[in-house]
TrEMBL record:
GO terms for cellular component: voltage-gated potassium channel complex. Keywords: Glycoprotein, Ion channel, Ion transport, Membrane, Transmembrane, Transmembrane helix, Transport. The chain crosses the membrane at residues 33-56, 182-203. Pfam families: CaKB. Its main location: membrane. InterPro entries: K_chnl_Ca-activ_BK_bsu, KCNMB2_ball/chain_dom_sf. GO terms for molecular function: calcium-activated potassium channel activity; potassium channel regulator activity. This is Potassium large conductance calcium-activated channel, subfamily M, beta member 2a.
Length: 221
């Protein structure tokens, strides 16, 4: 009988050791999960911060806030503009692209405005509708511009954005920092924040439930 008892004791010891091992392993896993969750929350906070001071500020600063129907008055290729493209480290060569000038009438105000493709092309050259990426092949850039001009024939109606305060005389066809891009930019940090919070919540919930379970077992005993 004594012998049987000692064997039984041994089994119990092994069993307890196993339990301890799994508990430590679980604890390490939980700690790692919490760290991952916290990392995701911190990373999303940093992304929000960077976006907040770059994109959202440009968006708030943008003067092209009102949308309207614009009627194309004329679209002409006026002159060749100089641009430079990179041909390697510290190497720049000059090239030329045709300048497409588009004038529209903003329907809601009746004002005549120059049209730019977006904020970026307005920044690059406010006189031309679109500034293609500079390249050696002037023909390719010419094709791009002609292709665009085909779609902006006189009397065509397009949706455009204008400055309701009349400070800015150009209108834009698309806004880089319109609602949709802002939505896309905020989407990923928001996903990350939700994921991180969910991981932390789940781990905490599991810990809480296992503590509850232990207490219930103790009470039953
Ligand atoms: C296009 O229309 C604008 C505004 O009416 C005018 O100032 C400009 O001279 C016109 N351009 C051409 C090439 O007709
Ligand atoms: C483009 O550069 C050439 C010299 O390479 C110059 O003569 C010309 O005036 C420039 N054109 C414009 C629109 O700046
Ligand atoms: C332009 O505005 C006038 C009123 O100012 C309106 O009657 C007309 O339908 C508008 N055109 C478009 C294309 O929205
Ligand atoms: C403009 O380019 C698009 C592709 O980017 C092409 O499908 C279309 O046929 C072109 N239109 C003209 C008028 O060249």
């Amino acid at each position: 009988v004594a012998r049987n008892e000692s064997i039984y004791q041994k089994f119990r010891d092994v069993d307890l050791l196993d339990k301890k091992k799994t508990v430590t392993a679980m604890k390490a896993g939980e700690d790692r999960a919490i760290l991952l969750g916290l990392g995701m929350v911190i990373a999303s906070a940093m992304m929000y911060f960077v976006l907040g001071i770059t994109v959202l500020r440009s968006y708030a600063d943008s003067v092209w806030t009102e949308g309207s129907v614009c009627i194309v008055l004329n679209s002409t290729i006026t002159a060749d503009m100089n641009c430079s493209y990179s041909c390697g480290l510290d190497c720049w060569r000059g090239s030329k692209y045709p300048c497409l000038q588009v004038y529209v009438s903003v329907n809601t105000t009746g004002r005549v405005s120059r049209l730019s493709h977006n904020e970026e092309s307005w920044d690059a050259n406010f006189e031309c509708f679109y500034v293609p990426k500079c390249q050696k092949d002037t023909n390719a850039m010419h094709h791009i511009i002609v292709n665009i001009s085909e779609r902006l024939k006189p009397h065509h109606q397009v949706l455009c954005y204008y400055d309701p305060s009349d400070q800015q005389e150009s209108a834009l066809l698309t806004r880089q920092y319109g609602h949709s891009p802002v939505f896309h930019l905020l989407f990923w940090p928001s996903c990350m924040l939700t994921g991180g919070t969910a991981i932390i919540f789940m781990v905490k919930l599991t810990q809480y439930l296992s503590i509850m379970c232990e207490q219930v077992i103790k009470i039953e005993r």
